[in-house]
Structure prediction request, 283 residues.
Amino acid sequence: MNGLGNQIIVVDMRGRTGRVTSAAAIAINAAPGTKFDQIMAIHDPKMAGTVAYIEIINSDGTLAQACGNGMRCVVQALTVEQGRQSFTFETVAGILFGQERDDGLITVDMGMPKFPWYDIPLAEEFADTRKIELQIGPIDAPLLHSPSVASMGNPQATFWVHDDVWNYALDRFGPMLENHPIFPERANISIAQVVAPDKIILRTWERGAGLTEACGTAACAAVVNGARTRRTGRAATVTVPGGDLYIEWRDDDHVVLTGAAEREWTGTLDPVSGIWARNDVAA
Ligand SMILES: N[C@@H](CCC[C@H](N)C(=O)O)C(=O)O
Prediction:
């Protein structure tokens, strides 16, 4: 599936033990036909009142706590399967709600952002995470600097720029910033241009996956960080390379993400080895 071009593999692990292994994720991502950003593994529910436990695996085999685009894909897959439109999930970052709307777009309540430095986490204390000391490029003329940081379940850094986000070599800076010592659990790195109080243009280098067409949690972080630095209001359209995401940071502190999700093809996967076969291709 994809969520605005964020390449997602939804794996149905219900009714079986075990997990999609890190080795399987790395093997799947190594094949040109199945390069992906995240695997969303649907497991049997662990908690009453939830439909499933979702485990999120990046293409480098590491686990992620949150994935907004992937959650939309899961909601869409389950809507088709179950003929209903609202679902409650458990993830390692908490309980999430998702709903397919009548217009086909999918809304996910991504929960509450966190701002203390130890929750993001950062390696050192910052009293104010709206602007932290971090820069890249020459010391007296940095190319990117002073990001706002937040946790959307996963660590997010938003670097603000005034010009075109495509002027920045995110493929070069992304890996350095993702792995910067200030981020002990690494981080998702975004470049954001605010073009109106309700419109942000965003590019993201994803932790564990690299350059993406869309990153839902990064879009949520951009709006939350935009609002708390008074660059934006609490609701905005975030234009990512794959299209538009609609984000609202509600008064109850929950961040709600709306956008498209699309099924591409289905197949059968061995979750241990990563060996797979498409269902629609004759053997
Ligand atoms: N694609 C995602 C974010 C995926 C997780 C991220 N790479 C991480 O490790 O935190 C989204 O749509 O939110």
Remarks:
- The pocket of LBFN2T5F is lined by residues 6, 37-38, 58, 64, 66-70, 154, 188, 206-209, 215-217 (CB under 6 Å).
- The chain has four helices and 20 strands.
